[in-house]
Fold:
Amino acid sequence: MMNRRRGKNYFKRIDGAPDPVVVEVRRRVHFNEVDILGMVWHGRYPVYFEEGSEELGRSCGLSYRNFYESGLRAPIVQLHIDYFKPLRLAEEFTIRTVLLWDESSRLNTEYYLLKTDGSLATSGYTVQLLTGAESGEVCIISPPLLERCRTRWKAGEFHHQTK
Structure:
């Protein structure tokens, strides 16, 4: 992993791997998300990341329903956030969510919250490990759900999406 503050991506790109899956969601800062200064409270940013993650999962067959029906879970084992510029009440912004190719039973996801002028407000990443729903044990071998996603990914089914 690399530090975003140095202008690099968080995760190393694998040579020959398919391009990342990218989904963008446009939204506006709501009243209940800001502090008394009118800035988004720092603890709200992981919720924005989750909104992007949910949309990305729906677009590539890795939704919460897909995990549930497959007897899998994907708990977050790492979360990192870098704050650059605050988001403010009623401000419009874009959540860019980027899923990167990985050969193991994990999901490496980067998040970029972009202001309307394109500047970076906040970025971060999560690492999720796929586990069995009943046992809670980490999947050593990639489960069929993830393999189906990878097959579609390699076939080029996932394109940059804006919602």
About this structure: The mean pLDDT is 93.
